[in-house]
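Moderator note: this is an archived Q&A kept for reference. The question asked for a predicted structure of one protein chain; the sequence and the answer are reproduced below.
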Amino acid sequence: MITLPDISAFEAQGVNWLGLVAVLVGAVIAAWLIPRIAVALLSRRLKGRRSGDIDVHRRAKRADTLLSVVRSLSRYAAIVAGILALFIFAFPGAGSTVLGVSLFIAIIGFAAQSVLRDVIAGTMVVSERWFDVGDAITIEPWGMSGVVESITLRSTKLRGLGGESLRIHNQHMYGVRVARNGIREIVLEAYVSDAAAGRALFGRLSTLLPSGPMHLLSSSLQIEEEEALGSLTRIAARGAVPPGREWLLESFAIELLKEIDADGVIRHGPIAYFSDPVAEQRFARTVAPALDLDDA
């Protein structure tokens, strides 16, 4: 009759070598085996890596991502199991078990600090309503611009004008610039020698500028001011573009306006500057009392 050796036979100097080796070997095997099981389960989706179908290719990328996470977690789990095994079997006793568990909790707590900071920052962002889903924002100091697609307590996701997906942890948002109504309004101003010719020049410029959701948001530039100043007339035309496309009016429209001014109607300018009716009204209320005080 075969008899199994007593477990105490594997102890030496108070160390349970059998338990220690068993846990370490089991952890290594699990770290090696679990990713391969995941590959077998996801093999059907992973075959779509080279597929021309966008949806199939996207599912394959998600499967690859899941597989990468499983591999990483398996390695971390094996390391944690090895550390706990050292405390439990190499230093047997209730005190060592408590110490090992305490060390594990301390490591998790230290790693969770960043997550906790993100959650606190996200709570403040949501409760103070810095922005909403659908707003066009720019996150400082990183200069990340786009439309807000989702907000969680952990992170914020933007969709850039180029279609790229942008994510940022909430704790790293030191400041946010929110475009009112999701647009940037820019005024083109020029001094012309003939008012009628100047209006015609801006009208022709409107027909040459591209319009649409990613360009000039109105069908044409709107002339909102026309002021006679001696022999010259100041003309100001307003246009709106999505955030990130300011160059369309700040530089391209100015160069185009100069190019089509064959008769030399423009004497000074044109220049471009940001303008917002709400901001102008509030600045007017702030500056007007100071002007009255100076005049007095």
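Archived answer notes: The chain is about 50% helix and 25% strand.
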